[in-house]
């Protein structure tokens, strides 16, 4: 997605607060330890639940959905960046992934 601000996974701390916009089943399979979960379709109604960080780093499986969310958030005047490569890149960089109970996961 041209023109969408991005951040490389390697530029984020392992415990970075990211906004995960994947579906519930994807979230349950494993996520970044500091992630906040808001399904993509719920973003407009849940702006008050966005992480209190700037810019908001938005992540999905591979970067497509999160790029759309970043474009929309930026249009609303919210500073947001797309996590390049999504959770696939997060896992590929050997960053920690946890499940619902906080135990390590591999996705």
From TrEMBL:
Note the SMART domains from the entry: RHOD
Transmembrane stretches in the record are none
UniProt-listed InterPro entries: GlpE_sulfurtransferase (IPR050229), Rhodanese-like_dom (IPR001763), Rhodanese-like_dom_sf (IPR036873)
Q: Which organism is it from?
A: Nostocoides jenkinsii Ben 74
Q: PANTHER family, alphabetically?
A: FAD-DEPENDENT OXIDOREDUCTASE, SULFURTRANSFERASE YTWF-RELATED
- Its name, as the record gives it, is Rhodanese domain protein
Q: Which residues form the Rhodanese domain?
A: 12-99
Q: Which SUPFAM superfamilies match?
A: Rhodanese/Cell cycle control phosphatase
């Amino acid at each position: 997605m041209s023109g969408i601000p991005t951040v490389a996974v390697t530029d984020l701390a392992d415990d970075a607060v990211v906004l995960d916009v994947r579906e519930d089943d994807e979230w349950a399979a494993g996520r970044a330890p500091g992630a906040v979960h808001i399904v993509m379709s719920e973003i407009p109604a849940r702006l008050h639940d966005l992480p209190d960080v700037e810019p908001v780093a938005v992540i999905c499986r591979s970067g497509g959905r999160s790029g759309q969310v970043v474009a929309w958030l930026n249009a609303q005047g919210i500073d947001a960046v797309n996590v390049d490569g999504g959770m696939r890149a997060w896992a590929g960089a050997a960053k920690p992934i946890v499940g619902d109970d906080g135990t390590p996961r591999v996705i």
